[in-house]
Design a protein that fits this description.
The protein is α/β, with parallel strands linked by helices. It has helices spanning about 30-40, 60-65, 95-110, 145-155, 165-180, 185-205, 205-210, 215-225, 260-275; strands at about 25, 45-50, 70-75, 90, 115, 130, 135-140, 230, 250. A five-stranded parallel beta sheet has the order 3-2-1-4-5, sandwiched between helices. The protein has a two-stranded antiparallel ribbon with strand order 6-7. It has a two-stranded antiparallel sheet with strand order 8-9. The chain is elongated and about 65 Å long.
């Protein structure tokens, strides 16, 4: 019987890059640049934008009018001085030679750089992204086929539960409250917290998790965590027509259902990432 052996080359390391309060230099203000600006703003970074005003995309202009985190210079790239104090550089201009020169300057200074449409001049790639609140999924083709990445994104997007973003927000809040009640890093307490959170995510539907409020979270901790069980949503004062088939079970005996593994994994992983940022 043939054994599948995954390739150990030809890929990229996919990361969630934390840019909060970092300075990102974006060179260019057209269509591609407007998408870069939006992605960087979502990551809570500060932007320095260098581009002649005559070529600005309408969305770029809108960002300039509405976002205080953008410092704008109405001109072309002036040289190494523009790279001072910069944490990342994104170029989206039509001049290939200037783009390569900027890339060389960045690499001399060990500044991560992405040059639109020139994969060899990229230290990292932008993939096709799905975003719902804190939930972010990226499909990357290593710069080979952005169009196929977009097609695949649409297929995956259709499989994500409607309230996934809200559910992750609520699970993140619940996890924070749990850590306040049962503090500590690692050890048996940390392992028990992780097991209980996984049990909650796998026992409740995504729609139910999205309904969690402060009162329900308090009761879930009192009647669930403290008693090592996962109550039904109705037992906590919530109402969901899907809840009829969800029964209270002992946390120590819960198994992660295969059908819910994917969405529960997304919820728990994203909640962990979300709460680690604070």
């Amino acid at each position: 019987m043939a054994t599948y052996t995954p390739s150990l080359s030809g890929g990229s390391l996919l990361l969630a890059w934390q840019l909060k309060d970092k300075t990102v230099l974006i060179i260019g203000g057209g269509d591609v640049a407007s998408g870069r600006i939006e992605s960087v703003l979502v990551a809570d970074a500060r932007i320095t934008l260098i581009a002649p005003r005559a070529g600005l995309h309408p969305l770029t202009k809108q960002f300039l009018d509405t976002c205080a985190r953008i410092t704008y210079h109405d001109r072309v790239f002036a040289g190494p001085q523009d790279l001072e104090g910069v944490d990342m550089v994104l170029t989206a201009i039509d001049d290939v030679e200037v783009s390569r020169q900027i890339c060389a300057l960045c690499r001399e200074r060990k500044i991560p750089v992405n040059v639109a449409d020139i994969p060899p001049s990229c230290d990292f790639y932008f993939g096709s992204q799905i975003r719902s609140g804190p939930l972010q999924i990226m499909i990357s083709t290593n710069g080979r086929s952005p169009k196929l990445a977009n097609i695949i994104r649409k297929k995956i997007e259709g499989c994500i539960p409607e309230h996934a973003g809200e559910a992750i927000e609520k699970v993140g809040e619940l996890r924070s409250k749990l850590k306040e009640r049962a503090p500590g890093v690692g050890g048996e307490v940390g392992k028990r917290r992780m097991r209980w959170m996984v049990d909650v995510c796998s026992s409740w539907d995504m729609d139910e998790l999205a309904l969690l409020d402060d009162n329900m979270m308090a009761r879930l901790l009192d009647e669930g965590w403290e008693k090592n069980t996962v109550p039904r949503i109705q037992d906590l004062g919530g109402h969901n027509k899907k809840a009829a088939g969800v029964h209270s079970v002992r946390a120590s005996s819960l198994l992660l259902p295969t059908a819910l593994g994917f969405v529960a994994g997304i919820a728990c992983t994203a909640a962990v990432l979300l709460t680690r940022r604070h």
